[in-house]
Recover the amino acids of this structure.
């Protein structure tokens, strides 16, 4: 009997017995993953976590059927953009589990897919989380059933708190915490790339704080934005400000705590200089660690009124701004098959959500 069947059976005798079984499975998994992290680091623990979630049946082969297309610049083949066609992404907002809880169980926070108490009944015990403490904050790692890249894991706050940052119109999480937690996680996960998508900047669940981490796809050790800035050498507190990419990018590189302090100070100063429009601004923040131990952080400002690119239905998020568009609809597949897409087509899509760093 698998975990889902076991929970379903136990639910017939009451939610307490089912939840006790779930808690036991959760504790056992976390104990084994913490041991794996000691020997193989957090990357090894995530690999083991992913395998566990395959065995429970929660994730199957999330990237089966995904097609990737590379579009190089005609005069500079080292520069490129990419597109992935990922039909499963169409269904992500419906969740991957049941919508109505068993008798005696309550829907919390509108059925939020990132809240542990909802996950228990939505996935009937098949989905388990991995607890991670980051800078004194507790996160639950959840494997993403609608993966964008290999080993796609969502790091969600253990409490139901807003995704927006503190400069949002209704307030939110302090910028220093967002940047600090993202860079700290990146430093523990070399070979992965992490994304914080701001509200109206690709965030799929705006009510619950979360970040995404994924391995780079096979055959693509660097994503387009990383290639574009491969010759830039910022150090510590001194960022690179890049305006020749379709979107303006601010980039830091160095030891995690140094990058966190420098980027936080820069964003706070930037927000003061943009006080008249700060309520309209959001951001994508991306972090990646290198084998040498340094962390690279990219900040891309976004306008909340430009969440979708011209001609596209899905919002532009962190993966898109680093140069890989995600298509999931029939009409988008027709664009690929017809040969209408090239380097400049993608460049123009990204330019359509361009937000200046400063307004004169």
């Amino acid at each position: 009997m698998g975990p889902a069947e076991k929970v379903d059976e136990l639910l017939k005798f009451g939610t307490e017995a089912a939840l006790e079984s779930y808690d036991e499975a959760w504790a056992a998994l976390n104990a084994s993953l913490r041991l794996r992290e000691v020997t193989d680091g957090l990357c090894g623990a995530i690999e083991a976590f992913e395998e566990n979630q395959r065995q429970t049946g929660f994730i199957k082969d999330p990237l089966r059927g995904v097609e990737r297309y590379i579009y190089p610049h005609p005069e500079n083949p080292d520069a490129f953009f990419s597109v992935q066609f990922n039909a499963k992404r169409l269904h992500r907002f419906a969740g991957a589990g049941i919508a109505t809880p068993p008798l005696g169980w309550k829907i919390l926070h509108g059925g939020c897919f990132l809240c542990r108490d909802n996950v228990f009944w939505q996935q009937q015990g098949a989905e388990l989380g991995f607890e991670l403490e980051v800078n004194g904050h507790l996160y639950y790692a959840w494997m993403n059933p609608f993966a964008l890249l290999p080993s796609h894991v969502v790091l969600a706050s253990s409490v139901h708190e807003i995704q927006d940052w503190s400069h949002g119109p209704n307030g939110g999480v302090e910028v220093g915490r967002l940047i600090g937690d993202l860079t700290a996680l990146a430093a523990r996960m070399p070979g992965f790339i992490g994304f914080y998508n701001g509200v109206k900047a690709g965030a799929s669940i705006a009510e619950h704080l979360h970040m995404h981490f994924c391995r780079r796809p096979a055959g693509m050790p660097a994503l387009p934005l990383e290639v574009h800035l491969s010759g830039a050498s910022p150090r510590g507190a001194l960022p690179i400000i890049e305006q020749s990419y379709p979107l303006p990018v601010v980039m830091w590189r160095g030891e995690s705590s140094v990058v966190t302090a420098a980027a936080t100070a820069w964003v706070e100063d930037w927000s003061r200089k943009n006080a008249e429009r700060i309520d309209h601004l959001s951001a994508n923040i991306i972090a990646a660690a290198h084998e040498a131990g340094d962390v690279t952080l990219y900040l891309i400002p976004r306008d909340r009124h430009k969440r979708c690119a011209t001609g596209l239905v899905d919002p532009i998020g962190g993966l898109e701004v680093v140069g890989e568009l995600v298509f999931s609809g029939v009409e988008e597949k027709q664009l690929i098959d017809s040969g209408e897409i090239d380097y400049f087509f993608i460049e123009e899509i990204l330019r359509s959500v361009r937000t200046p760093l400063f307004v004169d």
In short: DSSP finds nine helices and twelve strands in the chain. The chain has a mean pLDDT of 90.
